[in-house]
Amino acid sequence: MEYVPRERVGSLTAVLSVVSLAVVFAAAGGQVPQTAVPDAPEWFLELIPHLNVAISAAAIGTIAIGWRAIRRGRIDRHRVAMLASFGLFVAFLTLYLYRLIATGGPQEFPGPDTIYQFVYLPTLAIHILLAVACIPVLYYALLQALAYPVTELPETSHARFGRVAATLWLISFSLGIVVYALLHVAY
């Protein structure tokens, strides 16, 4: 069954990517006022990074399960795992953006300046770059899966885009865990 018209996959990918990235950059750039989100208790705001690292670890697991399932020809399991991965990504991003807006910006790095410059910033930059690059690739693979019956997907670029999206996703989520460890464990 076709959920997305095939001829709209490219344009929907572009629109969803632009809107998603605009929201993320607006929140990260302080363009969304704190009054735009409901107040939350301080304990909840402090809990969000810990929830997000658990979500990231779960997403790494579901992506790996989905990748393994498709390599074994288990299409239904692949579909469930990748939709779960997408849901986890949405949950992560929602919590991250909520905290970012509610607290007025990103958390400052509490460690030494040398670690900040030579470890934290490069890791964070690569994490962000891969997350941004992943968005349109992920949307394209997802929309193709929704636009074509399973029997026709091998004739599309879904597998190629899916491999790229999964790779970017895995690395980005992994680097996000490293960023978490630097911010909340090491320092």
From TrEMBL:
Q: Which domain of life is it from?
A: Archaea
Q: Report the transmembrane regions from the record.
A: 50-68, 80-98, 118-143, 164-183
Q: Which UniProt keywords apply?
A: Membrane, Transmembrane, Transmembrane helix
Show the GO cellular component annotation of the record.
membrane
Q: Which InterPro entries match?
A: Cyt_c_oxidase_su3_a-hlx, DUF420
Q: Which GO terms describe its molecular function?
A: cytochrome-c oxidase activity
Gene3D superfamilies recorded: Cytochrome c oxidase, subunit III, four-helix bundle
Q: Could you tell me the Gene Ontology terms of the biological process aspect for this record?
A: respiratory electron transport chain
* PANTHER family associated with the record: DUF420 DOMAIN-CONTAINING PROTEIN, HYPOTHETICAL MEMBRANE SPANNING PROTEIN
Record-given protein name: Putative membrane protein
Q: Which organism is it from?
A: Natronococcus occultus SP4
Taxonomic path:
Archaea, Methanobacteriati, Methanobacteriota, Stenosarchaea group, Halobacteria
